[in-house]
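Hallway conversation turned thread

IA: we were arguing at lunch whether anyone had actually written out Trafficking protein particle complex subunit end to end. Turns out nobody had. So, for the record, here is the sequence (142 residues) and right after it the structure tokens. Reply here if something looks off.
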Amino acid sequence: MKSYYFSGYNIGVRLIDDFLARNPTVGRCNDFRETADILSKQGFKTYLGIAPSITNWSPAGDEFSLLLDGNPLTEFVELPEGPGQKLSYNQIICGAIRGALEMVQLEVECRFVQDQLKGDNTTELRVKFLKKLVDALPVGED
């Protein structure tokens, strides 16, 4: 299961460069709400052809949910019976979000709350801001 997440992370690390090249007007976000908006309306739209709804903001404004109406990654997936039901194909999305945001100095946690592939009514993922990353030179280099 973690391999999907780490595959997604590696995709996100590279995808952010492509996204910024395709969208030269996108600059540094002023706050996490703006980040969520760009992620939903531009990122998902560009690469998956969907625009998830942003809902359930935490009171502190550091966590939100993305509701996916359709998910092209799981459109033709059927989970096998038995141990295969524990597979979580959608973890690739969480990994990509974390990887992409880490490259723009935002450390986030991303997890699925509900998954239609597992029988839930909707697909919902939570994104939580953890901290702003600071570039640092290795010790001894100036």
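OS: looked through it. The helical segments are 2-22, 32-48, 91-103.
IA: good, adding that to the notes. The two ends are 41 Å apart (CA to CA).
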